[in-house]
Design a protein that fits this description.
Elements: E1 4-6, H1 10-20, H2 26-44, E2 50-56, E3 61-67, E4 72-78, H3 82-91, E5 96-97, E6 99-104, E7 111-117, E8 126-130, E9 133-134, H4 138-149, E10 154-162, H5 164-173, E11 178-184, E12 187-188, E13 194-195, H6 201-206
Parallel strand pairs: 1-11, 4-5, 4-6, 4-8, 8-10, 9-10, 10-11
Antiparallel strand pairs: 2-3, 6-7, 12-13
Helix pairs in contact: 1-2, 2-3
Bound molecules: 1-O-pyrophosphono-5-O-phosphono-alpha-D-ribofuranose and uracil.
Residues 77-80, 102-104, 109, 111, 131, 133-139, 166, 192, 200-202 line the site of 1-O-pyrophosphono-5-O-phosphono-alpha-D-ribofuranose.
Length: 209
C-alpha cells in the first residue's frame, strides 16, 4: 500500500485557510497555490538521488551534493494542476514538464481526456503528478494510468486538498504511488466536491466563474 504524507506544518495550515476563503482573489489564490506546492515539493523530493560534487568555499574545498533535475518530470493535470508547476520549478528548474488534459464529466464525475504530451524517456525519470484536488480520485488515477502506459515507474502524486474517499480510491487503483497532500478534508459532497474544500480549483485559479 502506498504512503500518504500530510504536510502538517503551521505555515501550511495558515496558507490553506486563505486558499479556502471565498474572499481570496484570483491573484492571491495563484500565489498561495504556488507557495503550497513548494512545501509539497520539499517533502516529496526527500528520496530523490543526489550526486557528490566538488565544491570550493571561500575558505576551503569540500564535498557538495547535486540533484539531477533533468531526470525529473512534472506532469500537471490541466487545468488546475498548472497552478502548481511554477512552485516546483523554483526548486527543480531543469525538470521536464508534460501535460495531461482531463476534465470531470459533471454528471458521471468520470474523467474525460482531451490532451496529452509527455517527455521522452519518462521511464528513466522520477515523475511528479500535480493536481491541487483529489476528490473521487478518478482524474489522477487516469493520469497515472496514462504515464504508466508509456513506461513511467517511479511516480508520486502531489495535491493540496484531498479527502478520505479519494485517498482510498487512489491507493487501491495505484498502490505503488505515494501521495503527498497539504490536508485531508472531511468528505465529498453529493456533487463530488470536497468539503469544506475550496470550491472549483480551476475556476478560482483562472477566474472563470
Ligand atoms: C478538478 C481537479 C481535478 C479533478 C478532481 O478538475 O483539478 O483534476 O477535478 O476530481 P476527481 O478526483 O473527482 O477526478 P476539473 O475536472 O474541474 O477540471 P479543470 O481543472 O479543468 O477545472
Ligand atoms: N474539483 C475541484 O476543483 N474541487 C472539488 O472540490 C472537487 C473536484
Amino acid at each position: 500500500m502506498s504512503s500518504v504524507t500530510v504536510i502538517d506544518h503551521p505555515l501550511v495550515k495558515h496558507k490553506i485557510t486563505f486558499l479556502r476563503s471565498k474572499f481570496t482573489d484570483v491573484h492571491m489564490f495563484r500565489e498561495l497555490m504556488q507557495e503550497l506546492s513548494m512545501f509539497l515539493a520539499y517533502e516529496a523530493t526527500r528520496s530523490i538521488p543526489v550526486e557528490e560534487t566538488y565544491c570550493e568555499t571561500p575558505l576551503t574545498k569540500t564535498t557538495g551534493y547535486m540533484i539531477s533535475s533533468q531526470l525529473i518530470a512534472l506532469v500537471p493535470i490541466l487545468r488546475a494542476g498548472l497552478g502548481m508547476v511554477e512552485g516546483l520549478l523554483k526548486f527543480m528548474p531543469m525538470a521536464k514538464v508534460g501535460h495531461i488534459g482531463l476534465y470531470r464529466d459533471h454528471e458521471t464525475l468520470q474523467p474525460v481526456k482531451y490532451y496529452c504530451k509527455l517527455p521522452h524517456h519518462i521511464e528513466n525519470m522520477d515523475v511528479f503528478i500535480l493536481d491541487p484536488m483529489l476528490a473521487t480520485g478518478g482524474s489522477v488515477s487516469e493520469a497515472i494510468k496514462i504515464v504508466k502506459e508509456i513506461g513511467a515507474r517511479r511516480i508520486c502524486f502531489l495535491c493540496i486538498v484531498s479527502c478520505p474517499e479519494g485517498v482510498k480510491y487512489l491507493q487501491e487503483a495505484h498502490p505503488d504511488v505515494d501521495i503527498f497532500t497539504c490536508v485531508i478534508d472531511e468528505r465529498l459532497n453529493e456533487h463530488g466536491y470536497i468539503m469544506p474544500g475550496l470550491g472549483d480549483a480551476g475556476d478560482r485559479l483562472y477566474g472563470t466563474k
